[in-house]
Predict the structure.
Amino acid sequence: MSANRYTPTITKQEFDQGASSLRTALKQKFDASKADSARPKPNPATQGAFDHVPELDSKTVARWSSVVKDHIGCKLDPALIRKGGYDSFDDFWKEMAPKLRGCCPDGLVPSPETLAEALR
């Protein structure tokens, strides 16, 4: 796997400007996953048996990689996802947003053409 695969193409400042849009898009995915008609209905007979299961599991978060890519220009690095999942969407966002922002470069990302010109 290439490191560039998980390197955002936006700066920290651009992340800050678009963070609410990314959060909204991810929240829509979360809400859609909760409304999935294929999910089994709660069963009182098994109440308590799955109390340890998080509301948002890590595999679901991993499937959101394309949404992240649409907003920051790279796929979601699986290493950023908490093993075992998250207790809520807010728990996820509170932890993930700073991680994603931290992956963004501080300044502008020069294009290959700009780098080639600078080396001449």
Remarks:
- The chain has a mean pLDDT of 85.
- The chain has one domain: 7-33+55-118.
- Residues 12-34 form the longest helix (23 residues).
